[in-house]
């Protein structure tokens, strides 16, 4: 941490944290209690939160014992103060309840992608809203209800073709957003997610992703090739919708996923669509091609064929970046030239243990044979939405 960061923490963040009351004897914070107070309301609307967030809950573990808490289902806290997981009681679907401020416009943007005109378009890869609920006594906030999703990189990509499916849906989805005159403006890896329910033989726990929802046993899953997931853009708090009859205004670029686009570093307003192109290219570069040195993530081998396209997408000069129409066209041309064997080859994490590679390679041959017998395409293709 540098001196500026220390000064910012000491002056701004530290006092705010110290001003918050400590958790109570059960380990519940003010935010926990806010959600507990909405339990009955959410239940009336068909959503059941986990035991920890129900009135009268007492921990099954000693709150002073960290290890006991980690090992207990009711010790699993929410991932963010504004996001709660719950079961939809009608069909046991795990959903996300996101608390948003009306003033951010996130509800409006998310609703746009979920309306009748857009929700069934196969190019639309923006998360669909299941429902929007008012929050009692809080006119300035609402609940957005969506399917609960997993991080894109968990579980790992097994083949190059599985990675290609992800790139295709993200490129296609951002091109669609631009086509209907919407800029995401924050499309980093943090703001894309995977609906992996098709992959899992039973629901997984929303906090400990390796466990089953009922906390008994592991959450076993099929590969992306066998049971294709879907990938979505999420979090539209910074998105902007533009009037197609007007010249698109320039915007100041935001820091996204820990990275600031070149135009943001220079403090120069820019076409927000060009900034989106950079952010998506940077996502591919830092998650697959090169890895992310900030987070010590090594990247994934097998995707060098995308290097020329990604290099153009992250050009320092926004005017030299391709449009998303051009990105999609070039991407399709590249993929059409790749052999089926390359698409079915292993996507290898660069930090994979050398001693394990021969064994993984042999297993991969037998697994690939089984996928061929089942006639699973090299690039997974999820079933159309209805």
From TrEMBL:
<protein>
    <submittedName>
        <fullName>Kinase-like domain-containing protein</fullName>
    </submittedName>
</protein>
<dbReference type="GO" id="GO:0035556">
    <property type="term" value="P:intracellular signal transduction"/>
</dbReference>
<dbReference type="GO" id="GO:0005524">
    <property type="term" value="F:ATP binding"/>
</dbReference>
<dbReference type="GO" id="GO:0004674">
    <property type="term" value="F:protein serine/threonine kinase activity"/>
</dbReference>
<keyword id="KW-0547">Nucleotide-binding</keyword>
<dbReference type="InterPro" id="IPR000719">
    <property type="entry name" value="Prot_kinase_dom"/>
</dbReference>
<dbReference type="Pfam" id="PF00069">
    <property type="entry name" value="Pkinase"/>
</dbReference>
<keyword id="KW-0418">Kinase</keyword>
<keyword id="KW-0808">Transferase</keyword>
<dbReference type="GO" id="GO:0005737">
    <property type="term" value="C:cytoplasm"/>
</dbReference>
<keyword id="KW-0067">ATP-binding</keyword>
<dbReference type="InterPro" id="IPR011009">
    <property type="entry name" value="Kinase-like_dom_sf"/>
</dbReference>
<feature type="domain" description="Protein kinase">
    <location>
        <begin position="64"/>
        <end position="335"/>
    </location>
</feature>
């Amino acid at each position: 941490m540098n001196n500026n960061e220390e000064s910012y923490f000491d002056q701004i963040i530290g006092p705010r944290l110290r001003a918050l009351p400590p958790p109570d004897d059960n380990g519940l914070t003010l935010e926990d209690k806010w959600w507990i107070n909405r339990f009955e309301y959410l239940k009336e609307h068909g959503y059941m939160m986990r035991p920890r967030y129900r009135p009268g809950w007492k921990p099954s573990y000693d709150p002073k014992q960290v290890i006991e808490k980690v090992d207990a289902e009711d010790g699993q806290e929410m991932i963010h103060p504004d996001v709660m997981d719950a079961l939809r009681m009608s069909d046991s679907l795990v959903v996300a309840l996101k608390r948003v401020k009306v003033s951010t416009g996130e509800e409006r943007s998310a609703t746009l992608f979920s309306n009748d005109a857009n929700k069934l378009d196969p190019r639309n890869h923006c998360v669909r809203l299941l429902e929007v609920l008012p929050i009692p006594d809080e006119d300035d906030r609402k609940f957005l209800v969506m399917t609960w999703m997993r991080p894109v990189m968990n579980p790992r990509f097994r083949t190059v073709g599985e990675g290609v499916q992800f790139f295709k849906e993200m490129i296609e989805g951002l091109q669609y957003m631009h086509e209907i005159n919407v800029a995401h403006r924050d499309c980093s890896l943090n703001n894309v997610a995977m609906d992996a329910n098709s992959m899992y033989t039973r629901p997984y726990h929303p906090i400990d992703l390796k466990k089953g929802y009922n906390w008994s046993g592991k959450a076993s899953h099929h590969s992306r090739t066998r049971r294709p997931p879907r990938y979505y853009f999420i979090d539209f708090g910074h998105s902007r919708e533009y009037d197609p009859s007007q010249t698109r205004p320039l915007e100041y670029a935001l820091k996204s996923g820990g990275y600031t686009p070149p135009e943001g570093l220079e403090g120069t307003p820019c076409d927000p669509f060009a900034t989106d192109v950079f952010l998506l290219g940077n996502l591919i570069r830092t998650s697959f091609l090169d890895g992310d040195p900030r987070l010590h993530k090594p990247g994934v081998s097998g995707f060098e064929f995308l290097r020329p396209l990604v290099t153009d997408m992250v050009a320092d000069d926004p005017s030299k970046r391709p449009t998303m129409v051009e990105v999609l066209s070039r991407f399709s041309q590249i993929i059409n030239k790749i052999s089926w064997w390359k698409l079915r080859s292993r996507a290898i994490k660069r930090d994979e243990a050398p001693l394990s590679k021969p064994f993984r390679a042999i297993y991969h041959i037998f697994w690939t044979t089984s996928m061929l017998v089942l006639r699973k395409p090299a690039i997974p293709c999820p079933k159309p939405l209805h």
